Fold:
Amino acid sequence: MFTHAQQLSAKPSRRPSAAPSSASAAPPGRRLARSSCACGGGCPSCSSKRLAREGDAPAEAEGKQAAPVAGPEPPEFRDCSLRNTGIDDANQRLETARQRARDYVGAARGVLGAAPAAGSVYATALARHFIAPSDAQRTAIDATYQQILGTLTVSNFICNSNNICEGEQAFWLPADDLIHVCRPFWELSPTCRAIILVHEGAHDAGISVVGAHAPNRGSAGYPTGNTAAPAGQTTGARMDNPDAYAFFAAHIWRNGDTGRSCF
Structure:
């Protein structure tokens, strides 16, 4: 574990952070995506809740689908062995999630250069995830997405066993500047895996690395569905929230919101 002072010295933010909103603090030195259940996200109840996403297939169904046409072998991610992950296709699943995360980011960047048309999916997504950004703020959001894209490289990931993880789905650690993938990650739907990677990439790009972690999607500070942002939530605060980047990008790529949290 690392102290807050060590965290800041190890990885300074790449852009000034907005005033942090109220949220529960992450374990020192880690910026993570964690299940709220005591099981850490791996019990049958958590799995069934997470996998009931709009348009998502259960993770366990992946092995029951028809065999895909043979293609290039996936890259070998660091320490993504059967022993660490508990599955024998971790490299393939992580590469699929990484590519989808990059697609999410590309979709978000593809729309941010223009003002949203009233009633469009883009307008809805902006209001739901970033509230009411100005032209200058949209430009800043796009610049952050460019940084996030730079974090979604094969060399920036490492798989951890339960001996290292503490119930997280994944976390970014300033000390080694890597995104650590934990066993609960493999239980997520394909959509949520990509969302988690964008979330952790946002931490790596300097988002919500100072003070308490920003509110996760599904919390009182960042509700799911067509719900107005609560009092005190501002565009500036959402611009320092990794979930805002993850869920906005997924919203644009999917042409609709996920409807639920991934936690």
Summary: The chain has a mean pLDDT of 81. Strands lie at 31-34, 157-159, 168-173, 178-181. The two ends are 23 Å apart (CA to CA). The longest helix spans residues 90-112.
